[in-house]
Model the fold of this input.
Amino acid sequence: MALRRGSLIGEYIRRQRQQAKMSLRQLAAQAGVSNSYLSQVERGLRKPSAAILNQIARGMHISSQALYVQAGLLQDRSPHSDALAAIRGDTTITGRQRQVLIDIYESFRKEKPARDSRHRLDSSDEPRSQTRLAR
Amino acid sequence: MALRRGSLIGEYIRRQRQQAKMSLRQLAAQAGVSNSYLSQVERGLRKPSAAILNQIARGMHISSQALYVQAGLLQDRSPHSDALAAIRGDTTITGRQRQVLIDIYESFRKEKPARDSRHRLDSSDEPRSQTRLAR
DNA sequence: TCAGATTGTTCGCAATTGCAAGCAGAGCTG
DNA sequence: CAGCTCTGCTTGCAATTGCGAACAATCTGA
Done:
């Protein structure tokens, strides 16, 4: 049997983890799953249950929804997670810092090919960020 | 015994099914799961995976979210205004832009009491400058 | 009354999930 | 070099999922 699973969920997790500069074990510990299992999940050898996805999401500080969507368990839904609102409501940083973030965020939004009218569905990052495995 | 699980998900499904005046087998067929399994799920003897929940939701014409919430796999709404989570989940900007925001955000939090001002917004090991983002 | 259809349920069993433990390398530090 | 720690990966193994196939009740209808 081929394991040619979509595995986009696994790749997504790995990408997010690396972007957050976490080791596999680190994330595993933080999420409360075993590192071995997480390894297999990331490589698409195993298909994690929703409960596990949930834990992973929490461990990575991303929304469960985002993961579910990636896993194909949930379509679409709430494309606007409203980062702005979250930033504005964040009290762990100063007002000045908040304003900086907001400014940057908004400049990003403008920079984007905002031509797109309808909400985008694919959500994923750049298509070409290929892992380049040191080793 | 001792299966006194929460099983609210099961009860919920059964209630919805009966309200729709469907038989267990009918729903099972429409959802593409076995009737035996559906029976066990409804009585809380088994904990269905998200994939199964998805199929059931489709078979009952209710939203997947509703079921996930009932199953405790998803919280009703965005629970917190976790800025990091929101940024990570934001699909209206590119992954690189996200990463920039995240880096800045984290540097802000590290900054703590403006004493140790180690502004290291960059210093990344990734060549993300001049990301002109085609498309 | 007896065959047939429908209801929900129980009973194995193959396949899968998820874990603990242990493996091979890379990267340091003395 | 040895020793330690980090990285991710592989290997059994118990527990669980999910299904097919039967089972007991109930409701027809001829």
